[in-house]
Every structure is written in C-alpha cells, then in structure tokens.
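Changelog-adjacent note: as of this version, every example in the card shows the full chain rather than a window. The one below runs 183 residues end to end.
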Amino acid sequence: MLKELHIASENFAGVPFALVEAERIAGIDSDIITLTPSKYEHCQEQTLNLPLFSGGIVERLRNWTGSSLSINNIRYKGSENPPEWNPSVMGKLLFNFRDKLWTIPLLKYNIPAKLENYSIITLDGGIGFLRSGKFVRKWAEKYNNLVTIYYGSELRKRGVIKQIDHMAKFVFSFEFDHTLIHP
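Full-length structure tokens:
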C-alpha cells in the first residue's frame, strides 16, 4: 500500500488537506505535516509551529534582505526552465540562519527517520522543511519518488528551489498559467 506524506508550509486555503482527504478515499495512506498553523484555522493534523516563519519581523527581514522580490513571469514562453529562487546575499544568510534554527526542532521531532516510513513525499508549494532541502533531498536520493505541487503564486513570486525541484519525479500545478512557467 502506498504511504504518502505531504509537507506544506501552511494549509493556507485548505487545499493541501483536501488532497490528503481525497487520497485517503482513493485508498492511499496519506499524511500531512505543516510548518506553521493555518492563520485561517483550516483543518490540520501535525503542525510543527516552527519559529520565524511569518509575521511582522520576518516580513521586514525579507524585504530588507531582498528575499521576497517577485519574479516577472511574462518572459517565460513555456519552453524555458522555470524561474529559480535566487535571493540576495543577505537573503541567503537569512534563510541559512533559519534552516539552522529549524534543524534543531526537526531533529527533535525525528523527522529524518519519519521520512523513511513513506514511499512518496509531496512538497506542497515545492518546499520541504528547509530551503536547503537537506532532509528531503537525502530521502529523494534514496527513494526517487519526490513530487512537487504548485497551487498559486509561489512560482510567480518565488520560483522553484533549484536544489529541490531538479529531484522531483513529478511536478503538478493547479493554475493554467503555471504550464507557461514550469513546463
């Protein structure tokens, strides 16, 4: 029996959890872990509630470091590679710091060992637990069954995380214009 794990930043509009429920109806043993609770109180199962995810100070840091600059999708003609997240030097420092900070609770929750229980890992929004993709990339090298799903503006605003995206066996999207951005 397939056992699938969805990793989502947040169950933002309820869509990641709706997919998990649909997969369960189809007979797939599907779970979801979110990095932060839904600010809209959508259904959740396991939430890590990691620090420095969002909020006033994080938004100011992202703006200051230039790590939240929008990518213009007009230049993509459907045959080019997808846009890649490429933050400024300060943005890289910010996310490297956050990855190191988040590694502590992820190890405490025994995330690397828990990933071994799954035959498919789906990255909702194309991001795993860390921007570096540390734990997810190691799992993907071993099992080669990584899936990414893009729901909304993440491709237009952020682009793909290159070191994670190239390891995805399948890429799905929910918006028609994503086919122009990530063919």
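Structural remarks: The radius of gyration is 16 Å.
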